[in-house]
Amino acid sequence: MKKLAIISIISMFLLVGCNWFQAPVDEEVVVEDPIVEEVAVEDPIVEEVAEDATADSESKEIILAKCLTENGAKLYTAEWCGHCQRQKEAFEDGLEYIDHVECADGDGWAQECKDADITAVPVWVFADGTRQAGNTDLDKLASLSGCTY
Question: 5: closest CA among 13, 118, 95?
Answer without folding.
Answer: 13
